[in-house]
Structures are given as structure tokens and as C-alpha cells.
Amino acid sequence: MKERKVDIGKAFEEGDLIDEAIDEAARDAAILHKKLGLPLVGWRNGQVVHIAPEEIDVVNWSHEFDDEDEDVEAD
């Protein structure tokens, strides 16, 4: 990740840089989990869910998913 000087007040006010950092960290975690064969743990419809490593799509990754998705298993 490239470091850059940021006005922290402005970053929190606008939120874009923070959103980008969260997206990058979530994608890095997804890639690592897939490589290690570990499920991701998330929250969906008020329940904890495990996303199997074979269901992790790192090419089209988004840390947010539609509550209508049927490919995750509630625990």
C-alpha cells in the first residue's frame, strides 16, 4: 500500500479514504482465507455466517453482499 499524507479530519468527514482502506483490508483478508482454505466469517440477516473458501470470489470481491444471496450458510 502506498503511503500518502492525509488531513485526518477531512478523511473522516468525507469518508472515501476510510472506505477504500476497509475495502482493501477486507479483500486482502478474503485472498488470505482463500489461499489457506479457511472460511470467512460475516454477518447476514442478523446471523453469523461462514463463507466457504471455494465460494470466495477474489476477482469480483466486495466485502458487502446482498442479503438475498443463497450461497452462504447461516450458523
Automatic annotation (TrEMBL):
Protein's name in the database: Uncharacterized protein
Lineage: Bacteria, Pseudomonadati, Planctomycetota, Planctomycetia, Isosphaerales
